[in-house]
Amino acid sequence: MIASSSQYCLSRNVALALGPALVALLLVASGSDGFPAASPEDAPLPPNELMFAEEDYEDEEANILRERLQSEYGMSLFGVPDNQTGQRVTEWQDGTGINPEELGEYVEGDILFPPSRNGIRLQSARWPGGVIPYYLSPGFTGYDLQNFQRAINSYHSLTCLRFVPYSGRESDYLVITNDNTGCWSAVGRTGGPQQLNLQSPGCTTLVGTIEHELMHAAGFLHEQNRWERDRYVTVHWQNIQSGREANFRPASRESTDDYGIAYDYGSVMHYSANAFSKNGQPTITPKAAGVELLGQRRGFSQGDVEKINRMYKHVCARRSAAPKSPKSPQH
Ligand SMILES: [Zn+2]
Q: Which residues bind Zn(2+) (predicted)?
């Protein structure tokens, strides 16, 4: 079981422990989650300043990712979750050829760093030891939780990352909500409680969607925006919804973070062929022969697994090196 009733009983204590930043954030996101009422001064600050905390970056790769986010997206990364996206995800159905996380108003559809009262903090660090604590908000159905557990199980069986229920003691953790604001996440560990939204049922229908958002939280971006993607796919700009062209902007070569993994058409981080289409025609098609499906969400590709394990190789190794429990007495 993922969420026991005792975990749900924690909600009020957890809400009190989260501090005003997340309380304000959740009120903006959903209007009411059973959290204490916010006073006007609890409203989030406008996104007017980028703050970077260098000490939170654990390695050079995290620095590269942060610089990429800053240079390529800037202030557009910051915003508030919106119900217009939620409405589109409510209407989404499996089998339509578009993934629910491609329906958002957010950067590239589903990347969002919500502001807090502490201001804008574009951190994007690894999770120490490869351990990601998470708190599941009440309200997910049994079906949602079953698929969530399947996603967690694939992380645990295939990668070195470990998702552990929030104990109330960790300072950095995911708060996984199911507001009507679509599917979205920040990229990497931002510090403090960090919201990730999986609108139910749209974002919980496919295990690959849950894996996708958790991969953003772990520190990954979309596959089709790799710097060298034009060798592998054709972007059909004439079919892209007006104003959504930036979602298809490739990364600069300097900021690449492919971890030596070849371009991966089968990645759960790849857009579907009709993502952000204005006319039902494909916005992105493969150049390689024999590639039939882009943007599958059945589950991790081999490339996804390898990329996660390479990004976290040294981070997870630090966990393995740590003593797990006090040594038992020697005879
Ligand atoms: Zn995404």
A: 212, 216, 222
Calculate how far, in angstroms, residue 323's C-alpha sits from the geometric centre of ligand 1.
35
Residue 225 Cα to ligand 1 middle (Å): 11
Neighbours of ion ligand 1 (CB under 5 A): 101, 110
Question: Does residue 300 surpass a pLDDT of 80?
Answer: yes
Which sign does the torsion angle of CA 62, 68, 71, 74 carry?
Answer: negative
Rounded CA-CA distance 48/172 in Å is 24
Percent of the chain with pLDDT over 90: 57
Q: What is the pLDDT of residues 44-57, one digit of tens each?
A: 433 333 343 434 44
Which amino acid belongs to residue 120? Answer: I
The pLDDT tens digits for 249-281 are 998 777 666 888 999 999 999 999 999 999 999
Q: pLDDT tens digits, residue range 64-79? A: 777 778 888 888 888 8
Adjacent-strand bridge partners of 240: 277
Closest CA to 170 of 192, 196, 187: 192
Catalytic residue (choose from 101, 105, 211, 213): 213
Q: How many alpha carbons lie under 13 Å from residue 286 in its C-beta half-sphere? A: 16
Residue 81 contacts by C-beta under 8 Å, 6 or more apart in sequence? 28, 29, 112, 114, 179, 181, 182, 184, 197
| Contact by Cβ (8 Å): 159, 303 | no
Question: Is there a contact between 121 and 69 (Cβ–Cβ < 8 Å)?
Answer: no
